[in-house]
């Protein structure tokens, strides 16, 4: 048996798999987010405690030892730890918006574009560059007390194993890693005013680091591999490895990924190139800030339960009776396929005749249009897989197929945890049949008539978005 650990933004999960990739058991525990005044933070001890708890639950449920474990988790943010991996302060989440004024300045003076041309990373407020620069200016004592500025999974790996703090090429891709040399670009560090703090950047382990666990959550001596982070782990778990093929992750973050062997740092700076364990291979990533989080907010606001979504999507026609949503709900604006730190969501076309069903369909359509925008910008030419919490709604999957105008290879279950196991198996030389492990649950075909309707709707979405971007500046 194998175990995959996925340390998500709102939920920590661990899944057990047999040798053919069959999911045997899953344990999950929610973790909190503190949001105040644009700050979005997480308690590292709570996150790590949730990891230990789900592993203890999982090992109690399944019978037999694990051959190895794979670890993945949310990317970006800043997780400051001391030499023992203990928190120096709360983790600043990838959703954090405190550095938006700093990013505004870098957008205006050309720093933002220069960094993209060198590393393929379009910075956003919640990535380590702006966050570390903000902390250097406002909380220098926190940086003084830290031994490393890690990513989420790296903190968990260090505490599970006691190994030296390191990261991998995927997490390091934003924003300091040169994708050609696979090492930190010290010129970018200097450009962001962080030369004095260069020592906080964790060494890049290439390939991913391995170690044995110390006995918290998993038995002492369990082999574990650290990485890649959740976006590339999901691509592995969904079988997206051939150039041109793509993956849409309908989760808290709406992430669009396309496998590529071409590194093109021209064009509008947006998204990033995620370096993979195979040199010369990248994921062109357009990770929009808000996916299911936008629908969650609408459901909470309207008092509608998740289990009612499918019925309500069927209760109103395509176009939601004229209600339209620009789904840019994140406190830090948007980061893909463009960067607008001050962009906010917009709801239009509402009247006294509008229903909760109209609002929910309009939100799902808006998220679909945002996904289409990202996938086209990322260069999708092949097949498209889809995973994440949104796949639990068959009606939403049919709507997405129509909005995107293409078949969806739906991959259900704990796809990130599955990819973490596959990465660990590759690292340890354990042969697993990836074709069997990544087989889709179903394929959802678009309806030709609805797809044509949504193709026109997408053009309207782009026009409304252009106007909203202009107003946000």
From TrEMBL:
InterPro entries: ATPase_NBD, Carb_kinase_FGGY, FGGY_C, FGGY_Carb_Kinase, FGGY_N. Gene3D superfamilies: 3.30.420.40. GO terms for molecular function: kinase activity. Residues 251-425 form the Carbohydrate kinase FGGY C-terminal domain. Its EC number is 2.7.1.-. Residues 1-204 form the Carbohydrate kinase FGGY N-terminal domain. It comes from the Bacteria. The keyword Kinase applies. SUPFAM superfamilies: Actin-like ATPase domain (SSF53067). Belongs to the FGGY kinase family. This is FGGY-family carbohydrate kinase. It comes from Streptomyces prunicolor. The lineage of its organism: Bacteria, Bacillati, Actinomycetota, Actinomycetes, Kitasatosporales.
